[in-house]
Structure formats: structure tokens, C-alpha cells
Amino acid sequence: MKFTITRATFIKKLNDVSRAISSKTTIPILTGLKLVLSDNGLVLTGSDADISIEARIDADSETNDLQIASTGSIVLPARIFNEVVKRLPDAKMTIDVQDNFQTVITSGSSEFTINGLDANNYPHLPEIVNPQPLQVPADVLKQLINQTVIAVSNQESRPILTGVHVVISDGQLLAVATDSHRLAQRTIELPAAADSQYDVIIPGKSLVELGRMLTDDIQTVEMRFAENQVLFVAGQTNFYSRLLEGNYPDTSRLIPTSSTTQIEFDAPALLAATQRASLLSHESSNNVVRLNLNAQDQSAVIYGNSPDVGNVEEALTFNSLAGDDLEISFNPDYMKDALQGFGQTTIEIDFTAPLRPFTLVPSEDHEHFIQLITPVRTF
């Protein structure tokens, strides 16, 4: 196998694929990067058994300047190969696989020789063929990921909660995540897939990596499901993830259907105030801030306190406040994560009682996005 390619093009694909490669794996060959060169182009593959990423570089693309001398395949040690490629001196590089899988990498006056492995020993990726794949705008999918993965659990004691529950039916995709202290739920419309029915749990870590890959030059992502795998096709890149097995808890009953106190904020203003209050709460062992709402006086005050350092008190600016007076305490980090998912919108927060979960929804789109936070008992 021998080819020459523009280094910048190769590095872009290499960075994508490297997201799936881990140095900690029980299968030694998976610490390597698989390269397969055919007359059609070059395919790079990385995997840690849970996530697999496959990126293609077409032979006929003018921007790649891929010149094929001979086809073949090789697995190269990912960490050192990455370092070598990124430090080569010239704009182009040549990779030449010789006998005994020795691989010579040349660029300008620099030449490296790296020992490779037989690509036939690399695990095969599943073939996921779906006659009616789901098409989702890349920017919408990226936003959905950012808005839901914040609530996945990082506790392996309940592995099912480390994933995002995705239900597709009646032309809608519903994604929900919870760590039992907070919940994030987002719905998007899928007009072209009204007859598709799926109920799966995708690991949160997989979705985080997928979200990082969805750059502005990708317009649409295709989703295909198999028995225990999901495949996302984004441009010239295939992103595979295993699915979690088990039944996700029924989260619909956790969301309150009524409220006794409602307040509307500009999300950025409340986020900034919560960040200021958390400066002192983070210095305390319990990391709690308190919100005091008085509908009669039309006042909202947020408090942060650390017995060792001091306290902060700030009157909040809000758009409207109605209902019963309320004093409630919560983890400010949960509130900050939730508010960042809303961006520049105005939000409505609905409360039912000091120790009952409260919800945050966009003021103009209650149906498609909701965040829920469980308050903290402070007495």
C-alpha cells in the first residue's frame, strides 16, 4: 500500500476518527488506527468497541489530492502515528507500507518508519442497512444532544441512566435523560419518517463525541438502527455506537402538570446571576443556593452562602411573577447547565412546592423542550 495526500485533509479525518480510539482497551489492536486504501479512496477507522468511527477520503475529490500508487491496508499505533503526522514539515505526506507491515512515512526531508499490524485482525464493523433511514438536520441534532446529555448520570451503579432514551414514533423524535436529580427532555419533528418506530437508549458518552463531530459544514445526519447498534452518517463519516440494554424508567410521571408559582426570566440574565451566587456556594460543602419569590411584593432574590467565606444576595430582574410566595433551594450547577441549553430565549419556571421538582421551559415553545430540577432540602 502506498499513497500521497495533502496533510491538512488527512489530519482533519484523523482527528475525527481518533475520538473513538482509547489507550485503555482489552483488545490491543483497538489502540491502533486502521487504514484501508482502495481504488475508490482511503478509509480511516478507529474504535474502542463501544464507539466506532469510519471516515472516507474519496480518490476523485480535487481538494484531497489523494494519489494512489498501490492499494492495501494496515493498522498503525494511533498515539505515535498521530504525533508524527501532526509534526511533519511539509504540506504533503507519503505513506508506504512495506514487508512485515513496516510503514514508512515521508514528508519533505523527514522520514519515519513505524511498525504496523495486519488489518485482517481488526474487528469488522457491523453492516447496518436501513431502507428508510431517518434524516435529521445536523444543527438540530447537535442542539438536541447539548440540551439532553447534561442530565445523564455518570454513576455506573445504574448504567441505564448513563444513556439518553430516544423514542421515535408518529413523526417525532423524543430524547430524555435523567440522573434522578434532574431531567432534560427535547422533542423534534421528523416529517419524513412518520412510519418509523424505535425505542432505544444511546450512551451519553457516544452522543457527546457525535456532537463534537457535527461541524457547520455538515448539513444533514442520517440515522440507522440495528438490534444493538445505531449508525449516524454525517457527510463522509460513519459514527457507530452500541445501544444500552434494559428498560428506561418511565419519566413522564416525573413532570408536574400544574404549578402554584410561575416566574419568567431572560435566560442569560438568570444564568449570570446564578453564576455569581455559585461563586460562594462552591466554597461550601453543600453547594446550595436559595431563591426567594414574593408575588405580592413582586420581588425575586437569590442567595449564596459559605460559612467560611461569606454570602451574596442579589435582587433578580424578571419579566413576570405570579402565584404563591415561595422559598426554594437547589444545586446551582444543575441550574447553570439547564439555562445554557436555552441560549438567548426567555424561559418560564414553574414551581409546585419547596420540596417538589420544578420545571424550566422556553416561554414560546412549551411543548418541545423541558428541563426539570429537584430542589435540595436544607432543614
Automatic annotation (TrEMBL):
Keyword terms of this UniProt record: Cytoplasm, DNA replication, DNA-binding, DNA-directed DNA polymerase, Nucleotidyltransferase, Transferase
- Domain DNA polymerase III beta sliding clamp C-terminal as annotated: residue spans: 253-376
SUPFAM superfamilies, A to Z: DNA clamp
Q: What is its main location?
A: cytoplasm
InterPro entries registered for this protein in UniProt: DNA_clamp_sf, DNA_polIII_beta, DNA_polIII_beta_C, DNA_polIII_beta_cen, DNA_polIII_beta_N
Please give the name of this protein.
Beta sliding clamp
What protein family does this chain belong to?
Answer: Belongs to the beta sliding clamp family.
Binding partners and assembly = Forms a ring-shaped head-to-tail homodimer around DNA.
The taxonomic lineage of its organism, from the top, reads: Bacteria, Bacillati, Bacillota, Bacilli, Lactobacillales
Write out the GO MF terms: 3'-5' exonuclease activity; DNA binding; DNA-directed DNA polymerase activity
Gene Ontology CC annotation, any one: DNA polymerase III complex
Function statement: Confers DNA tethering and processivity to DNA polymerases and other proteins. Acts as a clamp, forming a ring around DNA (a reaction catalyzed by the clamp-loading complex) which diffuses in an ATP-independent manner freely and bidirectionally along dsDNA. Initially characterized for its ability to contact the catalytic subunit of DNA polymerase III (Pol III), a complex, multichain enzyme responsible for most of the replicative synthesis in bacteria; Pol III exhibits 3'-5' exonuclease proofreading activity.
Domain named DNA polymerase III beta sliding clamp N-terminal: which ranges?
1-126
Which NCBIfam families would you find in this protein's record? Answer: dnan
What are the subcellular locations of this protein? Answer: Cytoplasm
Q: Coiled-coil ranges per the record? A: none
Q: Name one GO biological process term.
A: DNA strand elongation involved in DNA replication
- The answer to keyword Transferase applying to this record is yes
Query: Does the entry feature the keyword Nucleotidyltransferase, yes or no?
Result: yes
What range(s) does the DNA polymerase III beta sliding clamp central domain occupy?
A: 135-250
